[in-house]
Amino acid sequence: MASLGLYMLLIFSCQYTSKTRGSVVTDSKPSATNFIRTSCTATFYPVLCFQLLSIYAGKIQQNEHELARAALSVSLAKAQSTTVFVSRMPKVPGIKPREFQAVKDCIENMLNTVNQLNHSMKEFDLMNRVRVQDFAWHMSNVQTWVSAAVTYENTCIDGFSGPLLEGRVKAAVKRRVFTVVQVTTNALALVNQFMERHQATIAPINIP
């Protein structure tokens, strides 16, 4: 009887532990997604921001650095896939000379976008290792490169201005590139938010 009682106690303990662990995992998910949702309100496109970043809630949790990094990573991935897409446009049957030139310029701008975002990702990955006094300088570099990426993206879209460029090539390119603009703009907003909140937590240095 004593053995049976001990056996039942062990089963109950295992079930309780399992339920407890399950509740912890379940509770952490909403807090992470709520953190992302709230943070995304600081962006220009909050719905898109939450849609793309909530996928990484398990990685982000409530970490502002991981949130901004995820936003940059998503932006880079979107820019890379869009660059591949635009690079195929010159082969579209019946493409007009003006469209061809606009696409060619857009490809160059999107390659520059990818380059700028690559720089920003590498610089941002240094943030957990830099000295406090160097933080603002490194973050300024990230902001500059992400801002430049947005400029290149918009320059691509501007290249299709004018009635002579109306058509399916323009529509397809603008639709894809504008999504990259939205994602990159959101990433910049989250990078700015991370910088502001991080600096607010740094105690001022008293210089004698």
Automatic annotation (TrEMBL):
Alphabetically, the GO molecular function entries are: pectinesterase inhibitor activity
Family matches, as SMART domains? PMEI
From which residue to which does the signal peptide run? 1-22
What the entry lists under InterPro entries is as follows: Invertase/methylesterase_inhib, Pectinesterase_inhib_dom, PME_Inhibitor
What sequence ranges are listed for the domain Pectinesterase inhibitor?
31-190
Keywords annotated in UniProt = Signal
Q: Which Gene3D superfamilies match?
A: Invertase/pectin methylesterase inhibitor family protein
Annotated protein name in UniProt: Pectinesterase inhibitor domain-containing protein
Organism of derivation = Daucus carota subsp. sativus (Carrot)
Q: What is the lineage of its organism?
A: Eukaryota, Viridiplantae, Streptophyta, Embryophyta, Tracheophyta
